[in-house]
Amino acid sequence: MRFNCSVGVAIMRPMRSNPPNKSSKSRSPQVAPAAESGGGTSSGVQFLTVPEELAGQRIDNFLQARLKGVPRSRIYRILRKGEVRVNKGRVKAEYRLRGGDQVRVPPIRVSEAPDLPVAGEQLRRVLEDAILFDEGGLMVVNKPAGLAVHGGSGVRLGLIEALRQMYPKSPFIELVHRLDRDTSGAILVARKRSVLLHVQSELRAGRMGKSYLALASGKWPRAQKLVEAPLRKNTLKSGERIVTVDGEGKPSRTRFQVVERFPGATLVAAEPITGRTHQIRVHAQFVGCPLAGDSKYTPDDVNASFKEKGLKRLFLHSAEVRCTLPDGRAVAVKAPLPGELESVLQRLRAL
Question: Cβ contacts of residue 229 below 8 Å, gap of 6+?
């Protein structure tokens, strides 16, 4: 069986809103500070208009995102004392904003925020070309391998930070789900809070579909179409995170289907039913067919044999995502297999 990896968007023509401003180095909107001595800065009174994309967000979270460096306890205090006003009235921390609300933010001392790394022109061009779909408040990006989805744990700049710099006028850009840094392919990004909440509810209910292509070492068992093995996360003394099959772990299920067989390897389609960390990788290892190029779960000698065939990274690719928008419209987007992985398959077919 031959799997056609050269696929693109499954529905609708991609349409981009707010095209990237390549020369911009803007960050997420913040309250403009005025200089003040004493190891910090203090803002003057600010009047902020809530965009439609943030409708439904709690006022405390709205303030937290804009008052960088201000302790959450201080935000609750100014809300409790009535120093924050929405449409000239007092509100509680749990108040949910509406599009067009006018928010008065009192003068407040904020910590000096460190400069964020700036996405370079090359990364911006790569990501601009990687946008497969951008409509209805939902963006689908064909994430390159090696790029983390967000900063943290030694990573200063991730996908989401780069996108926020590329779209400085977009008030809301958030990840719907995550991909491992070494995994390439389709990832969902919400440009409206309502879309984020809707699609994440579909994800929790099991109605959102995610399909991956993976190259497993060895001969995948024909009868092994569903792997059910509980997974448990562990952190080593070095700080490295590793996942193991453990009876005390969380229930985890993955569907596998053989796409194409090669000497010493099997191309499989994988659909995670649950969404555990490293789920596909560990379930493949569990059935005795760890993924090619996986430095964490695959033996070095196995990886060395695939390296001889030109594989330089983990062979795991998010090939398709499926969901609905809040208006009920179905979205299904396919991400083409990177050329570096397709060339490995071509070499295997020549054996």
Answer: 245, 252, 282, 283, 286
